[in-house]
Amino acid sequence: MCAKATMEEFEALLNESYEIDTPEEGSVVKGKVIAVEAGQAIIDVGYKMEGRVDLKEFANPGEAPEISVGDEVEVYLRNVENARGEAVLSHEMARREAAWDRLEKAYADENRVDGAIFGRVKGGFTVDLGGAVAFLPGSQVDVRPVRDAGPLMGLKQPFQILKMDRRRGNIVVSRRAILEESRAEQRAEVIGKLAEGDVVDGVVKNITEYGAFVDLGGVDGLLHVTDMAWRRVNDPKEVLSIGETVKVQVIKVNKETHRISLGMKQLQDDPWDSVESKYPLDSTHTGRVTNITDYGAFVELEPGVEGLVHVSEMSWTKKNVHPGKIVSTSQEVEVMVLEIDTAKRRVSLGLKQTMRNPWEVFEEQYPVGTQVEGEVKNITEFGLFVGLDNDIDGMVHLSDLTWEGRGEDVIGNYRKGDVVQAVVSEVDTDKERISLSIKAVEGDPFAEVVDGVKRGSVVTVTVTAIEDGGIEVEYEGMKSFIRRSDLSRDRAEQRPERFQIGDKVDARVTNVDAKTRRLGLSIKAREIAEEKEAVEQFGSSDSGASLGDILGAALKKGDDN
Fold first, then answer.
1. Cα–Cα distance between 1 and 7 in angstroms, integer?
2. Domain 271-350 sits in which CATH superfamily?
3. Minimal CA–CA distance to 417: which of 389, 386, 438, 381?
4. Contact between residue 53 and residue 88 where contact means Cβ atoms under 8 Å apart
5. Taking the model in full, what pTM does it have?
6. Consecutive 10-residue runs of the chain (561 residues): their mean pLDDT?
7. Nearest alpha carbon to residue 204 among 233, 237, 244, 263
């Protein structure tokens, strides 16, 4: 009976022992390394259970394992017994479980965690957080894109946990957040010491098309391209290079946004302070073309002082031409100062003013009445444009094409490219106009014919046509017309039909009209004038002689002569 009781007590104690001390699968237990062989550590976890763990599970990324016989380690009991009767253990899973507990607490408290980057994956890197593997996106490595992450590999450094999911085993961390926080503290400290107007040294970190970023010792300031020099800077790389140490002035500091504006030209004398004295109005200077636009060209008079040559001030003759066809970038040109506005920092320059007005030169070389030669450049409904010296044109109006007929009838005889002779009839330098006359080249036949013919003169004409209203006559090749009322003093003789074509008739000149190129003729006026002259010579009002006697005597005297 006693023996039976003893056996039952022993069995109860044994079962109780198994229930209390035997570790459950899926738990973390402590064990002792009893041997290291064949790349594995043999670990005794008690309860007559031993298991094997690969040595690599005891090594940090990039390091050799540090494990030796007698070391106490924590392992994860995956299975109590495998096919070989050994416990299935994992040191890595034990570390992971401990790490997850630690990381979840750090994530909840928003604390930093230490880790090391040990691998590269698509879109970023893998980080060992002391047993748990996290993902580090490429955008979260640094505040600026990192081209070579080699120096960061295996380096123990702090990270910020952005997101974690234990069930899925996902952890996302950021190195950039740590750097930005540290940088913000450093920036605030540096900015607190800066004041507008301070002159400091900095290092050029980055260059863009609009300026350069300068490191002032933990905080960057923007040096805009317009503040690099008083002169125009088209490319910041012409002035600065990355890594260069420069002296700059603090122009503006925004304490809230931590933005700093810097300037280099502010440390130099402003060339505009002496512009008015160095470049008086109407003075000429040599400058360099720096930029060409649709409305003109910018010319640099000295570094920092540029003036605009408006397109209207570029050429006397080229009115509708793009400035790029008159000057080119970097070309040296002579210009005249036309206007200065120091408040707006503007200088108006003239290019054509350095050359003589071609219309004035033409007037000196070809005064009115001079014959010139030129090529027909254009034909319009009102005349011809003829190319002359110094790229200027003269115009031949329709009325100056021919002496006979209408200009509209003869302009069709001309073509572009024809070389013509013309006489200068007028030069207007203010309106930049030159009037030419082609018909004047051969002289005015009317003027030659009527030379010496005055009003009151008696000329002999030839009848060329008989009409109801009078007769057409010709004098030295010039046509004229005698109206019916001027054919005779006697109304009964005012009949055109009493004349024959070819008859020679004497008529008195009543008008010489150079504009209409016509002679006013009258037979009647000649007869009246002859009668008056006869009365004055051969009779008087009290002589008693009849008019017939007087005229007869005058005619007889004429016949005797």
1. 10
2. Nucleic acid-binding proteins (2.40.50.140)
3. 386
4. no
5. 0.46
6. 60 57 66 77 74 72 71 72 68 73 86 90 89 88 82 89 87 89 76 82 89 84 87 85 89 80 86 88 92 92 90 86 91 93 90 88 88 90 88 88 79 88 89 87 69 79 89 83 88 87 89 74 86 72 49 51 46
7. 244
